[in-house]
Amino acid sequence: MKRIDAINEIVSKTKATDALLVANIGIPCKELHHVCDMPNNFYMLGSMGLASSIGLGLALSRPDKKVITIDGDGSVLMNMGTLATIASVQPENYLLVIVDNRAYGSTGNQPTATSKNTDLAEVAKGAGNNEVYEVDTSETLRETLSSVDNGIIVVKAEPGNTDAPVIGMSPETIIKRFMDISAL
Ligand SMILES: [Mg+2]
User: Fold this and answer.
1) pLDDT, tens digit, for every residue of 38-94?
2) What CATH number is attached to the domain comprising 57?
3) Which distant-in-sequence residues (6+ apart) come within 8 Å of 22 by Cβ?
4) Measuring CA to CA, which of 37, 50, 75, 148 is 20 to 30 A from 56?
5) Ligand 1 center from residue 180 Cα (angstroms)
6) β-sheet bridge partners, residue 42
7) Is the pLDDT assigned to residue 12 strictly greater than 90?
8) What Gene3D superfamilies has UniProt attached to this entry (predicted)?
């Protein structure tokens, strides 16, 4: 499976649960926008590494809402401390999905440390997270998403990007739209 397949499954989960969805910078945002643009989506246009932290803050500030973050291996490797921060609180309404395609997909698929020896599911467990899942097919991701609303899912994926177009909205429009829907 590729990132786009994971995004399709996550979008279905988001719609079914009316979750707030944070997507990390670069092609993940473009692919999410291409698959399904909706006000629940928060597209990050900067701040590489911080999608999981923003999602965590959102989950803590809105315990009545389900929050999902789509992150990548490169971004989590850049901000690995996020796994310990999440472990220190483990909100019941927060689900972090790390699409681990073993590459910096948005900059040309240069290999990341997960293409060698680093195992992000083990890092997440070692950081103290109690709910960590690992999947490697669309079917197992769908099954896991159907039964899990919190914790961390590491999706083992193949590198590869679609040619999803650039998001046409301004940052101001993205944040205003998202704030309006997340305030409900
Ligand atoms: Mg990657």
Assistant:
1) 999 999 998 999 999 999 999 999 999 999 999 999 999 999 999 999 999 999 999
2) 3.40.50.970
3) 42, 44, 51, 54, 55, 58, 67, 68, 69, 70
4) 37
5) 30
6) 22
7) yes
8) 3.40.50.970
At 182 the pLDDT is: 83
Rounded distance from Cα 89 to ligand 1 centre (Å): 26
Length of the chain: 184
What distance in angstroms lies between residue 45's CA and the mean position of ligand 1's atoms? 16
How do 103-104 and 110-111 pair as beta strands?
antiparallel
Total count of domains within the chain: 1
pTM of the model: 0.97
Q: What is the DSSP letter of 39?
A: T
Residue-range definition of the domain harbouring residue 86 = 3-182
